[in-house]
Amino acid sequence: MRAQKLSEAEIQERLAGRKGWTVENGKLHRSYECRDFVSAFGNMTRVALVAEAMNHHPEWCNVWNKVTVDLTTHSAGGISSRDFELAAKMDEIFGS
C-alpha cells in the first residue's frame, strides 16, 4: 500500500507523542547525542538494518557523537505515517 501524506493537523497530533522531534523544511527532524563516535555509528548501523527492512531510508548525518536525521516519504510528497514509524524505532534504538 502506498504511503499517504499526512495533513498538518495529523503531523502535529503525532508530534505530541514524539519527544525531541520537530518539523523542519517539511521533514521530521531530530538530533541524537551519543557518548562517542562508536556508539553513534553503532546506533546508525542498527537503524540502517531496520530502515532497509522497512524499505524506508533516512536522510542523516553523523559528526563524532551526534546523529542528525530528517525523515520524509518522497513517494507521498511529504511526511507520512511511515516516517513516524521509523522515528519511533530510532528513538528505541537511540534510547530516547
What does this structure look like?
The chain has about 100 residues and is of the alpha+beta class. The protein has a domain at about 35-95: Gyrase A, domain 2. The chain has 3 helices and 4 strands, in the order H-E-E-H-E-E-H. It has a 4-stranded antiparallel sheet, with helices on one face. Helix 2 packs antiparallel against helix 3. It is globular and about 35 Å long. It starts with 7 loop residues before the first helix and ends with a helix. The model has no long low-confidence stretch (mean pLDDT about 95).
Form type = globular
Q: Count of helical segments? A: 3
> How many beta-strand runs?
4
Q: What pattern of helices and strands is seen along the backbone? A: HEEHEEH
